Structures are given as C-alpha cells and as structure tokens.
Recover the amino acids of this structure.
C-alpha cells in the first residue's frame, strides 16, 4: 500500500492528519538541539569540546534536522508545483525565439515539475513541437541545477542572500549555455529520429483537473519516494560532514582551497562533475565545509557541478544527442559553473 | 481493452503498472496490459513526462503515479 493510500479520504481526516503532522514537525525540530546536548553531555557524560563528541553531535543533530527540512520542503514544493506541468511549459515556449526563449526556458525549468528520467521524451516533445534546440537545452540545464529542494535547504541553512545568488547564478549558466549551444548550429548532432517523430494523440495537461486533496496526496507520496531514494546519499553526506566538522583542522581547507588558491573553484568543479549525489545529500557537506572557512563561491560551484551534471542523466541524453553535442553540453555547462564560482568568490570574498 | 504503460522502466513506471494491475483486477474487466519502453513510440503518443497510461490507443494519464482508486475511476467509463 502506498503512502497516499494511507491518508484519510475524508476532508476532515485530512485536515486533522496535516495539522498533527505539522505539530509533530515543529516539536521535533524544536527539541532536536536540546535533546542531543542533554543526552550526549549529561546522559553519556561526553566532553563537549572533544572531537568525537563534535562529530557524533553533528551527525545525529544534522540527520534529524536535514530529514525534517527535507520532508517539509519536498511536500510544499510538490504541492505548489502540481499547478505547473511540462505541457504548459512547452505551450509557453512554443514559437519563442532564441534569446527570450532561453530566458523563459531557464525560468520555467526551475518551476516545472520534472524528473530527469523524463529528459528524453521531454526533449523529443519540445524539439518536435518546434522549440529551438538551444532553448530546450536551457530548460534541461536549469531544471536539475536550480533545484527547488536545494533552494529550500540553502535558505534554511544560509539565509536569503546565498539563496538568491544560487538561483541567479544557476539561471545565468542555463541561459548562456543553452544560447551558446544553440548558436553552434547543433542540429546535425541531434539523433535524426527526434525530428522524424510525429507527435500524435491529444496532449494531456498533467496539472489540470486535480482536486486539492490529490495534490496533498502527491506531496506525501513524493516525500516518501524521494527519502527512500536518497537516504544513503544523505547519510554519507552527513557522515562526511560530521568527520570534517570534528577532525579536519580549521586552517586545512583555507590553506589548500581557500580564497588564496587560484585553482580552488576549478578543483571543486572537477571533483563535483563525476560525483553523483543530489542537492539534499550534498548540503550537510557544504555546511561543514563552509564552517571550515571554504569560500561560498567555491561551494556553490561544487554543488552545482554535482547536481547539474551527472552520469545517469548524460547516459539518458545520449539517446537524443550525439557525442560531440553531449561533450559540448558538459563543457559549456562546466565552464559556466567555474566562471560563476570565481565571480562570486571575487564579489563575496 | 488494451492498456499500455508508457515509460523507460523507472521506479515510477513499475509503480504505475502495479496500480493498474490492481485496478484491473478490482474491476474484473478483461484487459491486456502491455509495456511500451521505446522513446519514439512514447513521444508519439504526445507524452512528455513519464510514466503515462494509454487505454485503447487513447492517452488518459501522464506524468504521475495515481492511486489504485484513481486508476479505477479512469478505467470505469472506458470498460464497456
């Protein structure tokens, strides 16, 4: 039985369930810090200044904090996004020229509910409907890179400035990268079957005609699906964050990857591209590294490289893009991320 | 009736197939369930977000995994 089927079907039952869930959320979030302080320092008599204590405290406290944030963010984002659909996005992009189209595609890439597993049918659907390839690529770059869950997490952990920078930077990379790739005349590097596909049937708008309780169900279902999928990444990320928090000397990263190192961003992106995680799993790591004095531009570049370019998505895109275009896609996006990283280290540093 | 589950074989597609089988069993209709995994055919139905459900060549749902009850509601008027 799926999670959605466990939610009461009556309106009253749903309101009660939601209220109870919200109350439980606030309570746990509230007592999380106090609970571990009391338990570790008083209960087990651990020394608050010892490294091991710091590591253990970071791990247990962050696991619960991040899990709570994720539940709330995924639920709210899914319910809000259920009002938008990829079919509406295509209708909005149809007939738009490059330039304006790239800007719109990047913006819509952020708010359209989209799973990278649909990258191929979406690409075919866009291109076969006459959306320019560069505009389609802007959408496909922005969608994973400016991730709503990452937005929510960054906002909760670092405040609105960093969040605004992340959104702005991600949009700029997606707009420029898509525009550049479109300018390169990449038609010949798209697999021919894409242009031969005839769009048949009638289009169903997946956002239309849903009752509010269906959207609530979708939200609950999505929370369960995503948490089930990402918990190993999350624990590895928090574990690494905890080890860094407790054991890495404060000046270690500032010496080797701090503002003084001209290759810092380059190295961060080079590590981030092959690394496959998700925005949520990477966040505890970013938090711990930031505490150790790594510059925010480097960290944002690292995070974007991890979420925007991943091997599974590239393997999917290989179905529609020939190797030269795929290579250009990776190169242009990675270059954009590197430039953004340096720019923000310069501005914020 | 012929029901097609469209999707490249991701978790969502398997979930959609599962709830569809449950709905068909619950309704007791005579239906064959097929899987469509190749992208040109999927896109040919006008689908841009998988998983999707096609009943007798007509697209009835795309981009989400419904509950068994919702599939039953979708199939009931079509099962003549």
């Amino acid at each position: 039985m799926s999670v959605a089927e466990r939610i009461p079907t009556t309106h009253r039952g749903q309101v009660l369930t939601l209220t109870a869930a919200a109350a439980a959320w606030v309570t746990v979030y509230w007592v999380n810090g106090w609970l571990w302080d009391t338990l570790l320092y008083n209960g087990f008599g651990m020394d608050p200044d010892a490294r091991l204590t710091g590591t253990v405290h970071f791990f247990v406290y962050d696991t619960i904090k991040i899990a709570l944030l994720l539940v709330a963010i995924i639920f709210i984002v899914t319910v809000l996004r259920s009002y938008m659909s990829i079919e509406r996005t295509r209708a909005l992009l149809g007939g738009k020229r490059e330039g304006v189209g790239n800007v719109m595609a990047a913006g819509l890439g952020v708010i359209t509910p989209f799973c990278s597993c649909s990258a191929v049918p979406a690409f075919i659907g866009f291109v076969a409907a006459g959306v320019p390839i560069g505009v389609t690529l802007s959408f496909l770059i922005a969608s994973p890179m400016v991730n709503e869950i990452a937005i929510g997490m960054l906002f909760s952990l670092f405040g609105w400035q960093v969040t605004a920078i992340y959104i702005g930077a991600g949009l700029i990379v997606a707009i420029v990268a898509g525009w550049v790739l479109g300018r390169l005349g990449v038609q010949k590097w798209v697999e021919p079957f894409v242009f031969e596909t005839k769009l048949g049937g009638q289009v169903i708008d997946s956002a239309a005609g849903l009752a509010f309780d269906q959207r609530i169900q979708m939200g609950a279902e999505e929370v369960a699906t995503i948490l089930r999928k990402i918990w190993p990444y999350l624990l590895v990320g928090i574990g690494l964050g905890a080890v860094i928090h407790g054991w890495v000397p404060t000046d270690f990263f500032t010496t080797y990857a701090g503002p003084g190192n001209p290759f810092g961003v380059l190295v961060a992106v080079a590590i981030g591209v092959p690394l496959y995680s998700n925005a949520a799993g990477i966040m505890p790591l970013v938090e711990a590294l930031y505490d150790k004095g790594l510059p925010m531009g480097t960290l944002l570049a690292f995070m974007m490289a991890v979420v925007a370019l991943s091997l599974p998505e590239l393997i999917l895109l290989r179905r529609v893009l020939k190797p030269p275009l795929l290579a250009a896609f990776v190169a242009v996006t990675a270059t954009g991320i590197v430039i953004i990283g340096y720019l923000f280290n310069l501005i914020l540093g | 009736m012929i029901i097609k589950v469209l999707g490249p074989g991701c978790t969502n597609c398997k979930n959609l197939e599962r709830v569809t089988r449950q709905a068909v069993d619950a309704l007791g209709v005579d239906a064959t369930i097929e899987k469509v995994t190749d992208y040109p055919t999927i896109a040919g139905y006008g689908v841009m977000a998988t998983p999707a459900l096609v009943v007798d060549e007509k697209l009835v749902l795309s981009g989400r995994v419904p509950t068994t009850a919702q599939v039953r509601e979708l199939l009931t008027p079509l099962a003549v």
